[in-house]
Amino acid sequence: MFTGSHVAIVTPFRKGKVDERALGDLIEWQIAKGTNGIVPCGTTGESATLSHEEHNRVIELTVEVVRRRVPVTAGTGSNSTDEAISLTKHAKEAGADAALLITPYYNKPTQEGLYRHYKAIAEAVDLPLVLYNIPGRTGVNMLPATVARLAVIPNIVGVKEGSGVIQQASDIVQTCGGRLAVLAGDDAMTLPMMAVGGQGVITVTANIAPTEMANMVKAFAAGNIEEARRLHFQLSPLFAALFYETNPIPVKEALGMMGKIDPELRLPLCPMGKENRDKLMQVMKEARFI
């Protein structure tokens, strides 16, 4: 289940509400274009500004639209363990195949606290769980030793490693790669991480280039290193452009340029500055996405 390119899908809004039709259309397009899995309500899905009702509905709708054609890994993390358990229980009831759980943000738990947080969720909800480490967002870095401790828990089956440090990814693969799937959490690190044993990516870029991201991962897994490298370099300008400003501002703008969604955001996120938008548009044109 946890191999290939899994899109961290945006949550489209229209006039302040979740645009369910646009989300359904995006999911159908992703599956048609070869994406290996859908990940709703992650960072890219603006989970931080969804109400609990909206969060639950986005997961329910995703499961309904996907209809078991690809895995659905629902974002259910929180900096409150009780809240994470509640969201994860709902994801299971909604029919999600797995849950993605970000490390608790702002309150900066110790490594022991991280271990106890994930252990409590795993014991409370019988659902495959994917750990999510992204210290640039959360203020805490989950160390390989902590991942290794958690990897012995049967329903902890993967980790999205977004530290951006290849040595850390390598250490995770070396210590527990046989027990859980290691997925890139930074699109530009997908190929380097697969080179040390990673199995795929949970990706922002696939929102724009689903086929190319899926083909890059597939090519490397099949041993076609030159093709994987070619696609990596082809996508590299987009990897950078989608982070000209805070994710998901640029990816929503790019989808708006493609006519896929209204690029509406919720405060405190705001529309892209003109200079960066112009640069993004140039990258999109050169890549022939618009």
Automatic annotation (TrEMBL):
<keyword id="KW-0704">Schiff base</keyword>
<feature type="binding site">
    <location>
        <position position="202"/>
    </location>
    <ligand>
        <name>pyruvate</name>
    </ligand>
</feature>
<feature type="site" description="L-lysine inhibitor binding">
    <location>
        <position position="105"/>
    </location>
</feature>
<feature type="site" description="L-lysine inhibitor binding; via carbonyl oxygen">
    <location>
        <position position="48"/>
    </location>
</feature>
<dbReference type="GO" id="GO:0008840">
    <property type="term" value="F:4-hydroxy-tetrahydrodipicolinate synthase activity"/>
</dbReference>
<dbReference type="GO" id="GO:0009089">
    <property type="term" value="P:lysine biosynthetic process via diaminopimelate"/>
</dbReference>
<feature type="site" description="Part of a proton relay during catalysis">
    <location>
        <position position="106"/>
    </location>
</feature>
<dbReference type="InterPro" id="IPR013785">
    <property type="entry name" value="Aldolase_TIM"/>
</dbReference>
<keyword id="KW-0028">Amino-acid biosynthesis</keyword>
<feature type="active site" description="Schiff-base intermediate with substrate">
    <location>
        <position position="160"/>
    </location>
</feature>
<comment type="pathway">
    <text>Amino-acid biosynthesis; L-lysine biosynthesis via DAP pathway; (S)-tetrahydrodipicolinate from L-aspartate: step 3/4.</text>
</comment>
<dbReference type="InterPro" id="IPR005263">
    <property type="entry name" value="DapA"/>
</dbReference>
<keyword id="KW-0456">Lyase</keyword>
<dbReference type="Pfam" id="PF00701">
    <property type="entry name" value="DHDPS"/>
</dbReference>
<protein>
    <recommendedName>
        <fullName>4-hydroxy-tetrahydrodipicolinate synthase</fullName>
        <ecNumber>4.3.3.7</ecNumber>
    </recommendedName>
</protein>
<dbReference type="GO" id="GO:0005829">
    <property type="term" value="C:cytosol"/>
</dbReference>
<feature type="site" description="Part of a proton relay during catalysis">
    <location>
        <position position="43"/>
    </location>
</feature>
<feature type="site" description="L-lysine inhibitor binding">
    <location>
        <position position="106"/>
    </location>
</feature>
<feature type="binding site">
    <location>
        <position position="44"/>
    </location>
    <ligand>
        <name>pyruvate</name>
    </ligand>
</feature>
<feature type="site" description="L-lysine inhibitor binding">
    <location>
        <position position="79"/>
    </location>
</feature>
<comment type="similarity">
    <text>Belongs to the DapA family.</text>
</comment>
<dbReference type="InterPro" id="IPR002220">
    <property type="entry name" value="DapA-like"/>
</dbReference>
<keyword id="KW-0963">Cytoplasm</keyword>
<feature type="active site" description="Proton donor/acceptor">
    <location>
        <position position="132"/>
    </location>
</feature>
<comment type="function">
    <text>Catalyzes the condensation of (S)-aspartate-beta-semialdehyde [(S)-ASA] and pyruvate to 4-hydroxy-tetrahydrodipicolinate (HTPA).</text>
</comment>
<keyword id="KW-0457">Lysine biosynthesis</keyword>
<comment type="subunit">
    <text>Homotetramer; dimer of dimers.</text>
</comment>
<dbReference type="InterPro" id="IPR020624">
    <property type="entry name" value="Schiff_base-form_aldolases_CS"/>
</dbReference>
<keyword id="KW-0220">Diaminopimelate biosynthesis</keyword>
<feature type="site" description="L-lysine inhibitor binding">
    <location>
        <position position="83"/>
    </location>
</feature>
<dbReference type="GO" id="GO:0019877">
    <property type="term" value="P:diaminopimelate biosynthetic process"/>
</dbReference>
